[in-house]
């Protein structure tokens, strides 16, 4: 059974994520311990609330260092909601710019839509070849956010290693809103803007896909 650490840095109620990952087949620990986070087969970085506050909490437990060291060794990391947003270079809220983990170029900014926050169930546009969304077709996922990444800026000439970016739009189906990044698959680094742990069977399948893809040491 793969081991997963949900990084506890003071960002909201994390028990639902822990339970969902356990149901997905992982042995899960909720902790801020650096060594445990480095040693686990998979690391989940959750996040709710303000970008700046999440980054402050993350720095308090050496989160950017943990994420960077894991990725340098090809060790899987999954960001959820603001835990995805902090993986980008910067976040701008109320005119204040905060530096993120800078694993991907790009800016988290307020969505431009008739109704914000974007809250509730929504469909996503998944690229061909996605492993996270394997076996998931025409499903809805649960979002709750006012900010997002509206442009994907990372460019690569190697199509075999190019990140897979999933998109979504705010607003009801009949009213075009604002397009934003809903998920990213980039080697060992994956992330979702939506909450898979709150997204019913589709979210459970996505987490099972991620857990099932974790490399585990031979017994």
UniProtKB/TrEMBL annotation:
Origin, by domain of life?
Bacteria
Cite the active-site annotation.
81 (nucleophile), 195, 197
Q: Which Pfam families match?
A: GATase
Which chain regions cross the lipid bilayer?
none
Which reactions appear under catalytic activity for this entry? L-glutamine + H2O = L-glutamate + NH4(+); 5-[(5-phospho-1-deoxy-D-ribulos-1-ylimino)methylamino]-1-(5-phospho-beta-D-ribosyl)imidazole-4-carboxamide + L-glutamine = D-erythro-1-(imidazol-4-yl)glycerol 3-phosphate + 5-amino-1-(5-phospho-beta-D-ribosyl)imidazole-4-carboxamide + L-glutamate + H(+)
Q: Name one GO biological process term.
A: L-histidine biosynthetic process
What EC number(s) has UniProt assigned to this enzyme? 4.3.2.10, 3.5.1.2
Query: Part of which pathway?
Result: Amino-acid biosynthesis; L-histidine biosynthesis; L-histidine from 5-phospho-alpha-D-ribose 1-diphosphate: step 5/9
Asked if the keyword Hydrolase belongs to this entry, the reply reads yes
Q: Which keywords accompany this UniProt record?
A: Amino-acid biosynthesis, Cytoplasm, Glutamine amidotransferase, Histidine biosynthesis, Hydrolase, Lyase
The subunit field of the Swiss-Prot or TrEMBL record says:
Heterodimer of HisH and HisF.
The protein depicted here goes by the name Imidazole glycerol phosphate synthase subunit HisH
Q: Which organism is it from?
A: Nocardioides marmoriginsengisoli
């Amino acid at each position: 059974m793969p081991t997963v650490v949900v990084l506890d840095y003071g960002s909201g109620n994390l028990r639902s994520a822990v339970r969902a990952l356990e149901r997905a087949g992982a042995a899960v620990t909720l902790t801020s311990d650096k060594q445990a986070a480095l040693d686990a087969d998979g690391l989940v970085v959750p996040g709710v609330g303000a970008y700046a506050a999440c980054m402050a909490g993350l720095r308090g437990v050496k989160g950017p260092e943990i994420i960077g060291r894991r990725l340098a060794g090809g060790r899987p990391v999954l960001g959820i909601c603001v835990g995805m947003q902090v993986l980008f270079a910067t976040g701008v809220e109320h005119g204040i710019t905060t530096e993120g983990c800078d694993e991907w170029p790009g800016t988290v900014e307020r969505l431009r839509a008739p109704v914000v926050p974007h809250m509730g169930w929504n469909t996503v546009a998944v690229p061909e070849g996605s492993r996270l969304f394997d076996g998931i077709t025409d499903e809805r996922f649960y979002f709750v956010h006012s900010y997002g990444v509206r442009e994907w800026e990372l460019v690569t000439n190697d199509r075999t290693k190019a990140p897979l970016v999933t998109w979504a739009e705010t607003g009801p189906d009949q009213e075009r809103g604002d397009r934003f990044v809903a998920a990213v698959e980039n080697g060992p680094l994956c992330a979702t803007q939506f909450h898979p742990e709150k997204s019913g069977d589709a979210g459970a399948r996505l987490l099972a896909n991620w857990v099932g893809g974790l490399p585990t040491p031979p017994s």
